[in-house]
Design a protein that fits this description.
With about 80 residues, this protein is mainly α. It is built from 2 helices and no strands.
Length: about 80
């Protein structure tokens, strides 16, 4: 099977559908209502943590990018 890119829209709708189903199940079994503001806040914090982790894990492991790449144009002769 070929690897394909992640469909963000489908992923977000799937997460929203699962969240709605979980809220319905909690409400039906316990009688407690879940505030949608808390659900969205927890979702945004989770997305931020995922983005932070992805950013930190993609950085280069070596310090190759710190190497000085200046070109030495001196040909060894004195101009004076």
């Amino acid at each position: 099977m070929k690897r394909h890119s992640t469909d963000i829209v489908a992923l977000l709708f799937g997460v929203a559908f699962c969240g709605t189903g979980a809220a319905f199940a909690v409400h039906e079994t316990t009688g407690r209502a879940i505030d949608p503001a808390w659900v969205s806040a927890i979702g945004f914090v989770a997305l931020g943590l995922i983005a932070l982790a992805a950013t930190l894990l993609r950085r280069p492991l070596t310090a190759d990018h710190d190497v000085d790449t200046a070109v030495d144009t001196d040909d060894g002769t004195d101009a004076s």
